[in-house]
Write a structure and sequence with these properties.
It contains 6 helices and 5 strands; from the N terminus they run αβαβαβαβαβα. The chain is of the alpha/beta class and about 140 residues long. A 5-stranded parallel sheet has the order 2-1-3-4-5, sandwiched between helices.
């Protein structure tokens, strides 16, 4: 894979973060905003779907257990709209049947809460580089 220009990556990749716990949401927003220019937030899957449909979202980071619409259903709907969207799940749930279901839906990665920053940003940057390289290939 070619080297990525992180300034271009920062400007060109947008992230939707869906999390119902406001403290976690605000923390995620702060650390993501340092690395990416466009961050969208939602507190449940229904709002997340609405933002996804109406905004240029490249990557989705989501919790699973949320009110109104959970992350599993939101992920299914996003994959129906745009199959190649990288979806990263952040959740305290780590039981095997649950993980298997999420992998069948087609998530990009799974991080168990509480998580460390290195693991979190390793997977975010892998997804962002993938999106960035696909965008570059389309415009080349």
């Amino acid at each position: 894979m070619p080297a990525v220009d992180f300034e271009q990556l920062k400007k060109s990749v947008s992230i939707l973060c869906v999390e119902d716990e406001m403290i976690i949401m605000e923390s995620l927003k702060i650390v993501l905003k340092r690395r990416f220019d466009r961050i969208y937030t939602a507190s449940n899957g229904k709002t997340g779907i609405d933002i996804f449909k109406n905004s240029p979202v490249d990557i989705v980071i989501t919790d699973i257990l949320m009110p109104v619409m959970d992350g599993v259903e939101m992920t299914r709907q996003i994959k129906e709209i745009r199959q190649d969207t990288p979806i990263i799940v952040l959740s305290a749930l780590n039981e095997e049947p649950f993980l298997k279901k999420m992998n069948e839906i087609g998530i990009f990665g799974y991080i168990t809460k509480p998580f460390n920053d290195n693991d979190f940003f390793d997977i975010i940057y892998r997804a962002a580089e993938d999106v960035y390289n696909k965008k570059k290939a389309i415009t080349a």
